[in-house]
Every structure is written in C-alpha cells, then in structure tokens.
Amino acid sequence: MEEHLPLLHLQGYRSSSILEKAAWASIELGDDEMGTALALDLVEPLRQIESQVNLARLQQLTERLSASPFGDAPEVARLRALLEGPRRGKPGPTP
Asked: H or E segment at 91?
C-alpha cells in the first residue's frame, strides 16, 4: 500500500484541481450556486492532501462569492466556516 501513496496523492491533487477550475468557471459564468457547491466539495479533499496553496485559492474564491449578490447565501457562509476551521473552544462545522 505504501508504494501507492504518492500516486493517490497525485490523483487527489489532479481531481481537486479540476474541481477548482470548474468552480471558478461556474462563478465566471454567473452560476454562483454551482460554484459554491463545487467549492464545498473541495474543502475536505484539499485538507486531506494538505494543499495550502489550493486552500488559499479556495479562500480567494470564497471572498469573491462573499462580495457577490449570492454572498449572503447559507452555502457561502458554510464555505467560509469550513475554511476558517474550528474556533477556539467550539467545534467546526462537519463537512
């Protein structure tokens, strides 16, 4: 199993990159709801592969959504909360 870990890590990175591009494209095309749904699906895989660069890009996507007319949607609030992680003394939202 150990010999497959780098490949699994690479596959996780690739699929996450594709989802991230799809999320950005959805937002660019005005489908903020789809972009948010895709972004929500990305948080946990990006944490699992410890991709700080991609998590930072996901944070940028979240900031853009927050500034949009869709920014007050509960899905965007959930995305923000997931990216912020648990607060002191409080558990974070479950993925």
From this structure: none
* Residue 9 CB neighbour total at 10 angstroms: 14
pLDDT attached to residue 34: 96
Block residue for tokens 């003394």: 89
**Which residue carries 């699906």 as its tokens?**
41
Residue-level pLDDT at 7: 47
Nearest to 16 by CA among 56, 43, 35: 43
Domain locations in the chain?
Answer: 10-84
Q: One-letter amino acid identity for 38?
A: L
What is the C-alpha separation between 31 and 35, in angstroms, rounded?
A: 6
- On whether the CB atoms of residues 79 and 70 are closer than 8 A, the answer is no
Give yes or no for residue 17 having a pLDDT over 80.
yes
Number of H helices, E strands in the chain: 4, 0
